[in-house]
Amino acid sequence: MRTTGDTRQRIVAAATELFRRQGYAATGMKQIVSEAGAPYGSAYHFFPGGKGQLGEEVIRTSGAAYLELIGTLFADPGADPAAATAAAFTGAAETLRELDFTDPCPIATVALEVASTHEGLRRATADVFASWIEALAAFYAAAGVATDTARDTAGSVIALLEGAFMLARAAHDTAPVLAAARASAAIVREALGSAGPCPAAP
After folding, report:
1. Nearest to 20 by CA among 133, 127, 115, 112
2. How far is CA 135 from CA 14, 69, 75, 156, in A?
3. For residues 119 and 16, what is the distance between their CA atoms, to the nearest angstrom?
4. Quick one: which of 161, 133, 151, 134 has its CA closest to 191?
5. What separation in angstroms does the CA of 104 have from each of 62, 109, 162, 189?
6. Beta-carbon neighbour count of residue 9 at 10 Å?
C-alpha cells in the first residue's frame, strides 16, 4: 500500500525529472502530479506554497544527492587530486552524452531561470552550490592545499563544470566538458604547487 510519504517522494521525483528535462518555467503542477501518478490536490497538501516550495525541495534534495556523489568521487585521500578532478569531469561528459545532452542536474537550470526573480529558489541554489564547494575544498585541503586556496580552487572547479555543461548542451558535444577537465586539473595542480603535467582527458 502506498503511504503519504511515498506520494510525496513521487511528486518530488517527478518534479526533479521534469525540471531537469524541460526547465522550471515550462513545468506546471498538473504535469508534475500526472507524471507522479498522484491526485492533483496532493501536491498542494504537501507543498502549500505551490511550485516555488516544491522547487526549493527539488533543489535541496538534488543538491544533497550530488553532495554524496562528490564524497564518493573524492573519497580516497591518497588519490592525486588533479587526476580525480579530471576523472570527475570525464565521467560527467559521459553522463551528458548518455542523456542526449539534457542536464543531469536540475539545479543550474533552475538557477539560470528564476534565481533573480524568486528569492526562495535563489537561496536554495546558493546553499547547494556552497555545500558542494565546501566539500570539494575539504578534499583539496586534505591533499595539502592551503584552506583559502582550497576554497577558491573548489569554486573555480564547480564554475568550470557548470559552464562546460551549458556549452556542451548548446553544441551537443562533450568537447567543452573535456576541455574543462584539463583546465580544472591544471588549476588544482597550480594550487598544489606541482610542476607535473596535467592529466589529459580522453
Report:
1. 112
2. 28, 11, 11, 13
3. 19
4. 151
5. 10, 10, 11, 27
6. 15
Helix (H) or strand (E) holding 83: helix 81-98
The pTM of the full predicted model, rounded to 2 decimals, is 0.84
Cell numbers describing residue 156: 573555480
- Of 20, 8, 3, 108, residue with least CA distance to 48: 8
Question: In a structure prediction context, what are the per-residue pLDDT tens digits for the chain, which is 202 residues long?
Answer: 455 679 999 999 999 999 988 889 899 999 999 999 999 899 999 999 999 999 999 999 999 999 998 888 888 878 899 999 999 999 999 999 998 888 777 788 788 888 778 899 999 999 999 999 999 999 999 999 999 999 999 999 999 999 999 899 999 999 999 999 999 999 999 999 843 444 444 4
